[in-house]
Amino acid sequence: MASKPLSARLTRNLNAKIAALPMIITTLVVFLGGTIWSVVYSFTGSKLLPKLKWVGLKQYDRLWSNSRWEISIENLFWYGIFALVLTIAIGFLLAVLLDQKIRFEDTFRTILLYPFALSFIVTGLVWQWLLNPEMGIQHIVRSMGWESFTFDPLYNPDLVLIGLLMAGLWQGTGFVMCIMLAGLRGIDEDIWKAARVDGIPAWKTYLRVVIPMMRPVFITTLVIVAAGIIKLYDLVVAMTSGGPGNASQVPAMYVYDYLFQAQNLGQGLAASTMMLLSVLIVLIPWAYLEFGGKKHA
Hints:
The chain contains 14 helices and no strands. By secondary structure, it is mostly helical. The protein folds into two domains: 1-41, no CATH class; 58-296, MetI-like (MetI-like fold, Orthogonal Bundle). Helix 4 runs parallel beside helix 8 (160-185), helix 5 packs across helix 8 (160-185) and helix 11 packs antiparallel against helix 14. 25% of the residues are buried.
């Protein structure tokens, strides 16, 4: 069969292509253009205003010799590891429980997903009140008679990341649960019937059959959660403002402070470029697994 002429291929689904054109142009100009601009000016000595005064890698040398940036990276690393593992694990377990066709499933799903509808600022303020020793969990427990009970993670440099993690898990696990539940509902019912006939325990069916079949769901969830962790900002500002001291500093706060408060554009853009590199480190393996792996297969 002869291939269609080029003009016919170009005009196919023309209305859809025209409708998508503004979005494509906006993406190219705003996202791609802004990214290139940021990377270019990260090699300059720009202060309050952008200025093409090349300084090479000096901004990056200064960045990685700054103790606040190093603390930010370390905090993000530890928060990210625990948030990534616990969010996916808890979200999957909640999805498994809801997949048992329990009564009032819609109600439970709504309750569990509700925190995700809140902004990180609102979540941060709520958990700031809950973890406040004067009016939160510590105060309630002490008023019940346990006078020696102490729980003030937001005021303890060694425990502040745990307080942030609690708030982050409360908001994010419901969203992950919904993604996992959709993946579980996509599993053929015949697989469960065959497993029951063969006498295979449910936990082994999940471990050996269901989870491997849900590999694309897990990879997509991992990318979404990891990207959200890298740009963590609102939650920290609302709960701790980076304190006590620099104990809860994160890279996004460093970028914001240098761009808008310290008025050091070059340093802020160097930090944002490093954050962009972190996102690419997450996205490139995902793209290879999703597209390159299929071609090789």
